[in-house]
Description:
The chain has 180 residues and is an alpha+beta fold.
Amino acid sequence: MGLRISLVVFLLTLTLFGIIGIKQWTLHHGKPITLQVDNSDLIPLFTGEVVRIRYNINAIPLDKLAEEDVELNTHEIVYVVLKKGITYWEPEKVYLKKPNIEPDEIVLKGEITNRNFDSDMLYLKYGIENYSISANESKKLEKPGTEDKIGVQVVVDRFGNAAIRAVLVNDQERYVEKLF
């Protein structure tokens, strides 16, 4: 019985280190990009220890789909090709399979949360919408004003996985993720 418990604890610990290791690998080896935060979420953005972020790339028009007449299902994995705009990276196309990209593009892996036929929008999540931060660090992230531009620097690895590196207010880093 003691051996089984030890094995379960070992496997859970190994899983935890694997999750942390993947995030740290992405932060260390990925390409940094800056994403714009949806302005409608500015007021409740930094109200607690968990930061909830909605990006402008969470809702993408259906005309950005690379394939036509495709049936998309909730929880389906898609690949969003992003290209750098003036300040932020913007969605170019959405693919069902990971595409080959140009050197000035990047692929971000997302999951469909909803497809709204009335508004012709595709709603996606990327695993970077919720972010934990300590109470002490959250004080650095003063509530931004309505005129402030909020961005998040995200690091994307070659597989399309993303991790938050920094929170930006008016292009200035207010919080930077630290490696262990």
